[in-house]
Amino acid sequence: MPLPIRHGRRAAARVRVSVSADAFHHMAMAAAEAAIAAPDLTRESYRLLEAWNKERGTTAIRRAKLPPSLVFSETGHETGGALFGQIERTAGVTEFHVGRAITTSAIRSDDGLVQSDISASLLADIAEAAGLPTVVGDFHTHPAVDTSLREIEEQELYSPSEIDLAGENLPHCEFSLIVTVAWAGRSKRLGADRPNLARRRIGDFLFYMTAYARGRRWSPAGEDFTLAIGG
Fold it and tell me: pTM of the prediction?
């Protein structure tokens, strides 16, 4: 959930997003790693936690609100980053060809992500200096490994939240992707894809990729967005 710090260009009337297999796999692995292997508390965080707990005079740590400086999660973290590629603009249609995804620094938790606009600008500058494709969008993940596939499908937890849709794009970013990671186990139910939603299974994980744009009306049917993942 990036901070709406700078204004980005609005998406065209219709948007087509194609994601290379390499970029998709990078985002999928980042989503799974952040969801399963959430970082432990640092020694400094433990010290702050102990001091905070003494002040409150309670041992019910898990039921009380924690200091915002602590890294603490039971359900896994969100992560996110920048998307690199090319843009093609024709009459009424903007096409984004994503060839690479790079995770960026952010304030991460199990229910949110705050990305800095500095990351996108810095990476765009480096890409330009190296003669590489530039930043065209951003992505973030939804950890849902502790949620049943039925609940994910019924509540459409792979869709952007109100916070995801609010504000403006990060610099150089004209669209966003959400990668939701779920534990599929032996289930063979994958559900039906939509123009702006693609599902892929890798091992025991099921990944949902959703395309959208901030500051724009969200349509679950995906009339304005077409998303394709390379083979």
Answer: 0.78
**Structural domain of 63:** 41-72
Q: Does 180 share its domain with 206? A: yes
Same-domain pairing of 166 and 57 = no
Going by C-beta distance under 8 Å and a sequence separation of 6 or more, which residues neighbour residue 219?
A: 196
Distance between CA atoms of 144 and 181, rounded to whole angstroms?
A: 6
Residue 85 CA to residue 17 CA, distance in Å, equals: 10
Q: Mark whether 118 and 64 lie in a shared domain.
A: no
Domain boundary among 25, 51, 72: 72
> 3 in a domain, yes or no?
no
Query: Residue 108: inside a domain, yes or no?
Result: yes
C-alpha 46/C-alpha 107 separation (Å) is: 18
> For 140-171, b where at least 16 C-beta lie within 10 A, e where not — what string?
bbbbbbebebeebbeeebbbbeeebbebbbbb
User: From first to last of its 231 residues, what are the pLDDT tens digits of the chain?
Assistant: 443 333 344 444 589 999 999 999 999 999 998 888 766 666 666 777 777 677 666 555 445 555 555 555 555 788 899 999 999 998 889 999 999 999 887 776 556 677 777 888 899 999 999 999 999 999 999 988 888 899 999 999 999 988 888 866 777 888 999 999 998 887 776 778 899 999 999 988 999 999 998 877 777 777 788 999 985
Residues 191 and 170 both lie in one domain: yes
Domain count, the chain: 2
